Amino acid sequence: MILVNNPGNWGKIYAPLKHAPWNGCTPTDLVFPFFLFIVGVSIAYALESSKHHPDTHKAVLIRIVRRGLTLFALGMFLALFPKFDFDTVRIPGVLQRIGVVFIIAAILFLKTDRKTQIWTIATLLVGYWALMMFIPVPGIGQANLQPTTNLAAWLDNLLLSEHLWKQSKVWDPEGILSTLPAVATALTGVLVGQWLKKPTAPGDKIAWLMVWGVICVCLGLIWDLHFPINKILWTSSYVLYTSGLAMLGLGLCYWLIDVKGYQKFTTPFLVYGVNAITVFFLSGLIPRIMGMIKVDTANGEVDSKTWLYESFYTPFLSPINASLAWALTWIAFWMVILYIMYKKNIIIKV
């Protein structure tokens, strides 16, 4: 998402680095569900010992809620900075959704068994489908999946009318109702994490990851015929499709890295991964700060980001490649900082 969120020119972006405008799924649309999926996997690893010691649950629950609220607060800070306009600040957001989903998924893992978690996933997916496809939208009419008139958009507009995504104003891609199936995405990761922790032969783990990955992808594509794959609505078909791909990706990584021992190529991913929230937060904050720093030019005053981009990128590359090169520069810039942090064992935990 550092690559996706930092083009030099938002009007000049290669198609795979764009979100699908509505229905459909691009490579960019895989990043967020993959992250929530791996959050679920990590929950199974991080809380396994606590799960079997009920006397520690109160303290663990406090830590879970504190961590989730911290993520929510970081997202709110990004939304507020630099104007701090509380009257129109966007309340939903990526970090906010991660925080809420983490709290719910972690509590469900801690307090329920695997069977209950499976039923919870099924209930969330089928229930969300039923709500979106069959419940009439108040003041609008029959159920529909159009951007501004679906049930999720109605609820967002009802409860958060002045605090939604400014590009849409009447709905939000991280809205209230669509957070329910996002919880299901994390719970699929919780199930996979529990499977990986079993004392089973690595070959069996990989085989079943691949099998279930293919099954989920196929189910998602079948459901897509009736309930389209859509990231903004986080449809049930999108959950199955992206969770299936996440299982396939994790199975491939497990085979290459843990079983076959190919680990040298993983360093850049590890460097980014151990401070993922930190780099996501700072990569959103620093461009805002750069926008506040003004530079005088022959054509008037511009912000420092624009000056750098127009001075060192647009004169030498085509518009779309200049935009991509700027984003790649951000990747390299953060790689240097994160690598230094990694070598010094500096890991900022939320």
TrEMBL record:
The keyword Ribonucleoprotein does not apply. Coiled coil: none annotated. Keywords: Membrane, Transmembrane, Transmembrane helix. Signal peptide: none annotated. The chain crosses the membrane at residues 30-48, 60-82, 94-111, 118-137, 175-196, 208-226, 238-257, 269-290, 323-342. The keyword Cytoplasm does not apply. This is DUF5009 domain-containing protein.
